[in-house]
Write the structure tokens for this entry.
Amino acid sequence: MIFDIISAVPDLLKSPFEHSILRRAIDRNLIEINIISLRDFGIGPHNQIDDYQYGGGAGLVIMPVPLHNCIQDLKSKNKYDEIIFMTPDGESFKQSTANRLSLLNRVLIILGHYKGIDERIREKHVTLELSIGDYVLSGGELPAAVLVDAVSRLIPGVLNDATSALTDSHQDNLLAPPVYTRPSDFEGMKVPDILLSGDDKKIEDWRYDQSLKKTKKIRPDLLED
Ligand code: ADE
């Protein structure tokens, strides 16, 4: 799967993709991440990309012309299954969204900065607006890293253990059960006996039960979905 990402602050996006699982997925050609600097499409001698908002109010807005030129340039070369804008006023990004996106070939992700992007770009180009939570970040770079990570780990071959993504929290609307590793006795706190029993069926039932209890306690809203 290919992720093309347009950013006004491309350096912010470097580190998240240079390590661990995502790094390996890139090296093995399971995913490709292209970061496009919006500044390269800026206007005038200073490559301007933002301006004051009409109607007044604090904060600069990303101008439509540089962003449109950048998107058009990419669209002329590539076919996109979705053009996604990361924004706190988008629909909630959920595991089910990640599952759906992981089946696509190529997506374009547009990131705002400052006060946001000109509304006309949203109307003209964007097919999906996603928020990673009910809080406002300084820009879309961290949300984009969240999106790319959540989607990439669902692509076959990205995780070593093929079943591991399926047992994550939020697959099946349940939080994940607790996990333990050695030692079996840590400062008097013992790993539940059942996990040492070797009885796969009982372990599976126990994990399901733990997931259900934890979800009821911490996120009962998930059970209502
Ligand atoms: N940009 C700023 N805040 C955001 C959020 N919560 N989700 C997605 N994009 C954002």
In short: The chain has a mean pLDDT of 95. The domain at 2-152 is CATH 3.40.1280.10 (Alpha/beta knot). Residues 86-88, 131-133, 135-137, 140, 143 surround adenine (CB under 6 Å).
